[in-house]
Hints:
single chain; two-stranded antiparallel sheet; 77% helix; 2% strand; globular
Amino acid sequence: MKISKKIIGIAGMIMLSMYLFAQEQTVQKANTENTNSSKKSESSVEDEYLSEIDGVVILSLAQSDEYDNKLVAMQFLEDAVDNGNTNADVMKALNQLAGEGISTQSRTNGRLMNNYPDIRRRACLALGKVKTEESKNYLVKVTLAENEPMVIAAAVNSLGEIGINGNDEVVDAIAYANRRNQILNPTSSLAFEVIEAYEKLAENTNNKKIVIDSLTKIAADYHYASPVRSRAMKVLKAINEGNSSSSKSSKQ
C-alpha cells in the first residue's frame, strides 16, 4: 500500500514536471514568434523607407543636366525595377529618361543638349518590366514621338512584353511607327521587334487587319534582311491560320 502511494506520488510529480515544461515551451515559442514578427515588421518598414529614399535620389539624378548622372540614374532604375521597386518616383524617373531629348528638351543657342538615345532605349526596356497601364501608355507615346529606330525598337519590344492592347491602341501605334520608318529609314532590327510584338499581341487584337497589313508590307519589302522577311511570313501565316480556325468554330 505504501509502495503504491509512493508510485502514485512519483507519477504525479513527473506529470506536473511535463506540464510545466510544455507550458514553458509554449511561452518561449510565442515569444519567439512575436520577436520574429516584430523584426519582420521593422524590416518591412525599413525596406519601404529605403525604397522611398532610393526613388527620391534616383529621380534627382534623372533630372540632372549631366549625362553621367542620368547614366547612373538609369543603372539604379534597372536595379530598382528588377527588385520590384516601382514607386511613384521610380516611375517618374523612368518616364523622364524614356523621353529624354524628345518629350523633355534642353537647348542652348537652339542646339538640343540632352539627346541621349542610349538612355531612352534602356528606359524603354526597363518600362517593359513594369507591366502596368501607366507604363504601356507612356511607351505608346514614345513609339509615336520617337525618331531613333533603336529606341522605337525597344519601346515596341516592351509593349509586346506588357501585352496590354485595349481598343487596339498599341498595335495602331506600332503600325504607325513601322510605316513611318519603313518610308524614311527601313531598319531590319526595328522590323524584327515589330513582328515579335505583333505575334504576342495578336490574340488581344480586335482588328487583325492592322497587323496583317503591316506584316505583309514587311514580308514584301526587300530593304529588310531575308530572315526578317521570312519571320514576318511565318507570323503572318500563323495569324491567318488562327483566324481561319476561329471562323470555322464560330460557324459550327
